[in-house]
Amino acid sequence: MLKLNVQTLMQNVKSVVSPEPVKMSRGVAYLYNALYIPFLTGKTVLIKDIDYSRFDMQDVFAFDQYFEKECEAQYECINGLSQLFCKAIPVSQTAKAFF
After folding, report:
1. Could you tell me which residue, 8 or 91, shows the higher pLDDT?
2. I want to staple 43 with a disulfide (CB 3.0 to 4.6 A). Which of 13, 28, 38, 78 is the partner?
3. What's the CA gap between 24 and 62, in Å, rounded?
């Protein structure tokens, strides 16, 4: 069985280097900022608010390919962490309770 040291985990997460910024065409950047970010934050995007002159079908395909890869990578990371936590043995620890 595996023990999980939360402090070490936190230190390792903080030490992760941010990936290089992705170079996007203007159209892909528009799709990212106008559609993807609002979607992630739970905002509504109305079809009438989309400026179709800012991107073309190549941008849509590039956007789709990039974020398909991103989603797969995120899934692999989350799945790995999930498996790690499932194998971990809880460590007894006294916690102060404030009432």
Report:
1. 8
2. 38
3. 9
DSSP string, 32-93: IIIIIHHHHTT----GGG--GGG--HHHHHHHHHHHHHHHHHHHHHHHHHHHHHHHEEPPP-
Which residue type occupies 38?
P
What's the pTM value of the predicted model, to 2 decimals?
Answer: 0.54
Contacts of 66 (CB under 8 A, 6+ apart): 22, 24, 28
What's the CA angle centered on 19, arms 51 and 35, to 5 degrees?
20
Dist. CA 15–CA 13, nearest whole Å: 5
Cβ contacts of 1 within 8 Å, gap of 6 or more: 87, 88, 89
pLDDT band at 4 (very low <50, low <70, confident <90, very high): low
